[in-house]
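User: I'm new to structure prediction. If I give you an amino acid sequence, what do you actually give back? Let's try with this one:
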Amino acid sequence: MKHLKKLTLLHSNDLHGDFMVEKVDNKLVGGVSMLSGYVNKVRREEENVVYAIAGDMFQGSLIDKEYKGVSTIEIMNLLAPDVVTIGNHEVDYGLAHLLFLEKCANFPIINANMYLKTNGRRLFHSHRILKIGGMQVLFIGILTEEVLQKTKLENLIGTLVDIKEAADEVGRICDAYQTEDIDFTVLLTHIGIEADRKLAAILDPRWGVDLIIGGHSHTLLEKPIEVNGIPIVQAASGTDQIGRFDIMVDTDLNSIDSYTWQLIPITPENCPEDEVLKEVIEKYHNITETKYNRILTRFPERYTHPVRNRETQVGKIFADAFKISLGLDIMLHASGSLRSHFIGPVMTLKDLQEMEPFDEEVYRYMVTGKQLRRMMKYMLREEAFDADAHTEFYQFSEGMRVVYNRKKKKVVSLTMYGQEVGDEEILRVGMHKFHFKNLQTGLGISEAEVARNGMPKVVATRSLGLLEEYFTSRPFITASIEKRLVIEE
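Assistant: Good question. You get back a string of structure tokens that encode the predicted 3D arrangement of the chain. For your 489 residues, that looks like this:
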């Protein structure tokens, strides 16, 4: 006779400071107060409930940015997850600050593979065993260097390089607890859905990993993806929905006997609002609204940035702002640095900082026409066209036009103001510090190679200050209708 116990496992990922309830088609959706209301409702209705968050609590709202994550930790303490792993944006305010924020958290933050290079000491607890309903549930937190590029700016910090090393680390932790009666094992990852697939495929079944709850790629699923017998899930991003597993655990075999999974919309019909959390969020919201509600500029209509892997109206406006302000030939503005889906027709300081929350230095470096073609070909490699792509993609400033033949995998034309760029022609390119320091992964060219054309230079110390000045001095801005990137299918 089987010994079965029910486990209800709720999960979120990539919340990105999405604290406020929004009105969509005249219906209220999302917000942490309604999300908390749903979690609390399930905790009252079900016996064995665990709520996990798979990274990126921080970055994306003024409430988070204004207080450098301290506000987010206070809000998360009231939301009360049982276990959280870190994502790449958890280090945006610096690793030292993240370690401070961990001390402010009333919930465990786990990560198995960030460590000090000097002595190999982990920065966080690698795992957490939750004892619930007579079961022991093991959670292991995983990031890889491919995702956590920010650590390349921190000389003392290391992390695992690839999926193979991540799998080995999981094996070591699972093996260490074989003598204990671990009933269920969950990997809490922040590496993207494709990396989760690769990880699941190479996990040894003897390690007993039952489930992967992931983040980073913001993937919206209709049902779990199963690889090597392991269900893999994400809950898109933000607080508009939450993932829910109802699992029957076979405590003799320490495995899943059966399960159902669904994505629950966070709406008033499902989720009674948490009034205490609502008051805390409104306190922060009112402070930031007062400070940041100054109007900077207007647009003739609402401009959009719906996806990260194609040219957008918003992308062109922001790339042009840097090019014009800094006297560059080209500004390559990372699509992923633009965090909202639309802006305008009126833009306030709040709108600007929520669209582009990263206040960074801007570097100018030199490339030849030949190098730039190579960089564009790398950016437009086939994986960049995937709907779930999390490769770097860049918005071009005015004057630059790239024609790329997807079938031939070739840059057919690269022009500046209608003139083909010569192979030996030198162009001054601007880029935010983070992306400049990760040129190899973003555009397939090394910092050392471009430095041979001339020493890279910091041309702006605060990108947000530059943007604020640019938009304030232009009371009305219209997005260019020119096609700067043409894909020949």
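You can read the tokens as a compact description of the fold. Here is one thing that stands out. The two ends are 59 Å apart (CA to CA).
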